[in-house]
Design brief:
It is a single chain. The protein is of the alpha+beta class and about 260 residues long. The protein is built from eight helices and ten strands. The protein has one domain. The strands form three sheets. The chain has a five-stranded mixed sheet with strand order 2-1-3-4-5, with no helix packed on it. Strands 6-9-10 form a three-stranded antiparallel sheet. A two-stranded antiparallel sheet has the order 7-8. Strand 3 and strand 4 form a beta hairpin. The radius of gyration is 21 Å and the shape is globular. The two termini are about 20 Å apart.
Length: about 260
């Protein structure tokens, strides 16, 4: 399995049409800004939903939509709806800005809402995980979430916002790190939940795709082809490869 996963991530042979590359958060280290292949705020919002910039109810711009759907043109390139900027300062991970689209503007440009959410407070994230920062040349992408491949990376292990380890690694060591991290992830309860959810979603898709409503405009041959596609559920290997490329498992801490 390790070898197969390594081949897949290296060559990006999984189809590139199932998901879209995500707009990354940012991180500033020694006055230089980098893309961040993690989203540390997702853990913070899970514990503090009132601070979610879209659904937390603190942004006045959304007040009139409390009983309606917020008209934000979420793109497949940013499911989060925000872009956060972090900074490493005195060996600590700090949130310094968060931006969302301005729905009151025709251009829908991103605007800062940090002060509206937090005022002048310095937020304690209590984040623990491994941050992945590409520092080398871009090589390839599967257009799967954050499945980009670069020549070099910087890894930062964070424990309650404090850096406990950091290292510059090349592409080959990064791939080994990802495989080791995923191997450990497979032993977690979260992995079991994700696999179960994948198959449940597949069953729901099958039911919807083969419904009379969805197939009433299809030809007999098209319906037969669709039934053939859903004849057997995806193999566990395919599900694992999908999770390997799409899931942000930065909370799984391993050596590198």
């Amino acid at each position: 399995m390790k070898f197969r996963l390594l081949i897949i991530i290296f060559t990006f042979t999984i189809s590139k049409i199932f998901a879209t590359a995500q707009a990354p958060d940012k991180i500033i280290i020694e006055n230089k800004e980098y893309n961040l292949l993690n989203n540390p705020l997702e853990f913070f919002f899970a514990k503090n939903p009132e601070f979610d910039p879209i659904y937390g109810g603190k942004i006045k711009m959304f007040d009139k939509y409390k009983t309606e759907i917020i008209p934000i043109p979420f793109s497949t390139g940013n499911y989060r709806g925000y872009i956060a900027t972090f900074k490493i300062e005195n060996q600590l991970l700090k949130l310094i800005d968060i931006k969302i689209q301005n729905i009151e503007s025709e251009n829908r440009e991103y605007i800062s809402v940090y002060k509206e959410l937090f005022g002048d407070k310095n937020i304690i994230l209590n984040y623990s995980g491994i941050l992945v920062i590409p520092t080398g040349d871009f090589l390839d992408s599967a257009n799967f979430g954050y499945s980009y491949l670069y020549s070099k990376y910087r890894l930062l292990t964070i424990n309650n916002d404090k850096i406990t380890k950091e290292k510059e690694i090349d592409k080959d060591d990064y791939l080994k790190f990802k495989v080791n991290q995923f191997t450990k992830y497979k032993k977690t309860n979260q992995y079991k939940i994700e696999v179960k959810n994948y198959y449940e979603n597949w069953k729901d898709d099958k039911k919807m795709e083969l419904s009379k409503k969805n197939t009433k405009h299809l030809t007999k041959n098209e319906i037969l082809q669709l039934k053939k596609e859903y004849e057997n559920p995806p193999s566990l290997e395919m599900v694992e490869n999908f999770l390997f490329l799409t899931k942000n498992i930065d909370f799984v801490i391993v050596e590198y």
